Amino acid sequence: MVRYDPTIYQGAAAHYRYGRPAYSSALEVVLGKELGLDGRGRLLDVGCGPGVLTVRLAHLFEEAVGLDPDPDMIAEARRAAEEQRIANITCVEALAEDLPDAAPGTYRLVTFGSSFWWTDAVRVAETVYDMLEPGGALVLVMHKAGGPSVPPSPGPPPIPHAEIEALVEKYLGSARRAGQGAPPARRADEDVIASTRFGVPQVIFAPGIPDLVRDTESVLAGYFSFSFSAPHLFGDRVEAFATDVRNLLRARSPEGVFWDWPGDTKVILARR
Ligand SMILES: C[S@@+](CC[C@H](N)C(=O)[O-])C[C@H]1O[C@@H](n2cnc3c(N)ncnc32)[C@H](O)[C@@H]1O
Q1: Alpha-carbon dihedral of residues 50, 54, 58, 61, nearest 10 degrees?
Q2: Which of 7, 44, 46, 68 to mutate to test the pocket of ligand 1 (most atoms within 8 A of CB)?
Q3: pLDDT at 115 over 90
Q4: Which structural domains are found in the chain, ordered by start?
Q5: For the chain, percent of residues with pLDDT exceeding 90
Q6: Separation of CA 164 and ligand 1 centre (Å)
Q7: H/E element, 55
Q8: From CA 199, how far away is CA 186, in angstroms rounded?
Q9: CA-proximal residue: ligand 1, atom 7 (nearest)
């Protein structure tokens, strides 16, 4: 049983869209082909954060619902939908565990972008199973670094993640933090899904963006968007941490640009 801690992403929402690298640019094509998406039906994006998948996929459906318990994330999701003038998105502030009541109805696709593991996953997957139309699917989307095919840098140095993480550790200690405690223990997503009525899911890798270049502030924003280094965890030392990161990044790249390789995009697809 995972108990939701409303402080896990406290202060992170404002940094999220600027700080997080995009998923594969082939994602829409992959999902469209696998699921025969044709503009009909509804999408539910659970743990939508600032609407990352909701805004990307809404055009493939009649209606899209983004759901997240964090009010700041939901505000960012609404803002993203407005900015991009996407009229068929509704945003709901609720937990995955509040389904189906929080977003009732039938869905063709239910997505979790890097959010499934925060939820009471078996229970939530079973609930989603009953919310899907026949042939509909539950899909988990995440970055998957560490694969065999690391592309060459387009020029700039890579983000010095190990050194930034050492700074996080210097400020926050060696135990990973999340909210008021530690992140939940994590089982492989495939095993979780396989233990539900969905059975063994399909796994697809969509090619990551090979030449993603980010600036210093975007790299820092990325760290502030993570639960383990969210701004609130640093208390009154948040500016000191930001200064240390900026100094480190300046030393690694005087031009202030970095190559990011978050990996390919892993898609775990389970059909009803
Ligand atoms: C890493 S962010 C992912 C945001 C976005 N889906 C993406 O792909 O980038 C994880 C999100 O899960 C949300 N979350 C955490 N616990 C949740 C729960 N029990 N139910 C639904 N969402 C939850 C957080 O508020 C956060 O916005």
Answers
A1: -150
A2: 68
A3: yes
A4: 13-271 (3.40.50.150)
A5: 94
A6: 23
A7: helix 52-57
A8: 19
A9: 113
